[in-house]
Amino acid sequence: MEILLEEFYKIDLNLEKYHFRKLYLDDKSYQINGITHSGKTKLVKNYLLGLKKSTYLYINCDDIRIDIEALNKHLNSFCNRNKIDVLVLDNYKEEIKFANVSQLIITCETHYKIDVLETLQLYPLDYEEFLAFEHKYDSSALNHFFQLGGFAHMHRVSADERNLNIQRMLRLALDDVAVDIITLCAKLVSQKLSAFTIYERLKQSRKISKDKLYKSFDTLVSKNYIHLLEKFEHSRATKKVYLCDTSLKTALTIEKNFGNFFENMVFLELLKSGVDCYYDDEIDFYLPKTNEIILCKPLVDERRLFKKLEAIEAFIFTHSIHKVTVISMNKEGGLSHPLAKVEIVPFDIWALGD
């Protein structure tokens, strides 16, 4: 194990052109959580390459040459002997013991309760981060975002390989049950969906125990492969389901529903901005802290919008809603309403706003 640690210590890290994310690392100790291909490794390597090489040790724990028992025996003494200040355990495994270093950084999909580590949650690119990968920002950027989604590596994948790339990525990261669950979520994205409903649907095509499915579903939620949205003031009501990235819908199902796809995009922007939100009857997103309702209407029809506003007037009045934001593909404007300000905003302008 000493020989392998020496190899890890001496090897030069390589990082292609790095596009900065909204999250960054300083001299604190961190646990970085995120799904596969969310950018955890690049974030860590970019930080390490700003340090003196002799002061850090980077270990990718997925390396099959690592014997965890031997690693636990030698890691601390190796770090002390080489005066390692920063230890990075990429793709960390729970069985690995930490060394006594000034700064410890681990990356993993699963969140571990470790008091000495500050948690950073890394998601796939939001729209603003996505634009950093574009050669130029013009009217085609949003359409490109629709096509590629938020996985940064997709910029290097040819159009005919994108869906297969996503499928391979998921099959490497997840078991068959989890992939089947995500595939069903892709078909029913932005709709109310429970683990029981998924079980009832999947047991028609495969043999599976309810306990195993529920456990797999909970794991997908805890790792943020899928997201659940509560109904306002009804935490026990069936939750709405969203995918970690809209590219999964295209890759996993041929069913087309651009309205649901668009709503998932809006949800992800809200999620990545840290805004508390809920759904309610006839309401896509309710933001209680700002007394705002968000409606997703990629193609705005003003007559239908008026009817929608009439349907939610009781909610607007009861909860003192100050603003209704209607997010569209490209239409901009406003409507007159006696109870709240109604503003129609294109997705790209809204996503880049404060």
Indicate the CATH architecture of the largest domain.
Orthogonal Bundle
Helix and strand string, N-terminal first?
Answer: HEHEHEEEHHHHHHEEHHEEEHHEEEH
Residues in helix, %: 25-40%
- The total count of helices amounts to 14
Overall 3D geometry? globular
Structure explained in plain terms:
With 354 residues, this protein is α/β, with parallel strands linked by helices. The chain has 3 domains: 120 residues, Rossmann fold (3-Layer(aba) Sandwich), CATH 3.40.50; 147 residues, Winged helix-like DNA-binding domain superfamily/Winged helix DNA-binding domain (Arc Repressor Mutant, subunit A), CATH 1.10.10; 80 residues, no CATH class. The chain is built from 14 helices and 13 strands. It has a 6-stranded mixed sheet. A hairpin with a 2-residue loop joins strand 8 and strand 9. The protein is globular, with a radius of gyration of 23 Å. The relative contact order is 0.09.
Core attributes:
Rossmann fold, single chain, 38% helix, Arc Repressor Mutant, subunit A, alpha/beta, 3 domains, six-stranded mixed β-sheet, five-stranded parallel β-sheet, globular, 354 residues
Tell me briefly what this model is.
This protein has 354 residues and is of the alpha/beta class. It folds into 3 domains: 2-121, Rossmann fold (3-Layer(aba) Sandwich), CATH 3.40.50; 127-273, Winged helix-like DNA-binding domain superfamily/Winged helix DNA-binding domain (Arc Repressor Mutant, subunit A, Orthogonal Bundle), CATH 1.10.10.10; 275-354, no CATH class.
